[in-house]
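Narrative summary of target 7.
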Amino acid sequence: MSTTPHIVLFGAGKSATVLIDFLLDITAREGWQCTVADHDKGLVERKLAAAPHAHAVGLDIRDAAARMALVAAADVVISLMPPALHFLLAQDCLKAGKHLLTASYVDEQIRAMKKDVEAAGLLFLCEMGLDPGIDHMSAMQLVHRIRRTGGIITGFRSHCGGLVAPESDTNPWHYKISWNPRNVVLAGKQGAVYRERGQTQKTAYTKLFAEAGQVYIPQLGQLAFYPNRDSLAYIPVYDMADADTFVRTTLRYPDFCSGWNQLVQWQLTDETIRYQTDGLTGESFLKKHLAHHQIPFPAINELLQKQLLSLGLLGDCPLPDGEHSAADILQYLLETRLPLQATDQDMVVMLHEIDYTLEDQQHSINSSLVVKGRDALHTAMAQTVGLPLGIAAVLLLRNQLPVRGLHIPILPEIYAPVLQWLENVGIRFEEYGDL
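Modeled conformation, tokenized:
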């Protein structure tokens, strides 16, 4: 470690704002250094606000020499880059002997580095954001408590979603963009596989939103959920081979799922076919797209009509000129028609539902989290994605995170201090049930 500990963050987008504020505060108090690199140096400079101990860098992430120079100067590297780019930083961190933290799923390229990371005595901590991240930590803390009493897990359901807070809910989708809009457009495209009552279940993308279930959140009421990707991959990770039910889901308001299902049926999330959109409105594009796919324009109920109007797919909403896919157009409309306004509050909601047996008796316990943002910059999404990364970086630099190797945060040595810190700043779970 250098004489003055140095944290280097790659990425300064929507999810980075609260993390940057956290790093500026902690590094100022500790006398550490902080560097934030992004392709948009002006954005970084605005977020750093001329802090004397922090440094803004404009960076093309594919510039290997410039990237490696930043990594080599760091003690801990945090990546909030798009997931496909983490591997570039992972390679640099391994070569330079630096710890790496990310909020993204472990991909096969990084998984293949596991032995080398362990041999180098480094910590590569992935899935350290919200979902994945806080979901792992809070679930495993609860699961480990149950197991310490002798309980055996029979059912596990974990739900998480980024939503608009009721105070700022002003459109018929009950949704506003608080994170990467492309991810919203493409959500669920892989379909879902999970376990329900002892049977493996597979749900195709075309049925995902149509078959959404509902769950009750005490502070909010009924929300809709749809299964999220491959839940089965986490059964061995969570050591739940004997659980009859195991599913991880995404939360939305029910009206969102009904409306989004129609967009999926109309193939409006397609990325393959490109249209010339010069002079088109949202409605004329929709008719052109449906005609191309030979999909008859259906009768529209009152809710869907309101949703299409608010999104700009009915009426005279102008579209950008050029060649665009349906997914491009949908992303543009989400960004321009459903943005968080400056004073809007977003909301993160999480719920774990766990069934278990103890002394031949069935028990259930639920644990829920509701976090609301402050405004369109300091969002709940930015809090819950960014703070776990920042906390882990501080724990590493204080020698309070002794784990080494390639990990996700399912170990008590990781999740216990991070969850305690989060609770201290108001991000805490409420439990109800019979544990």
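The mean pLDDT is 95.
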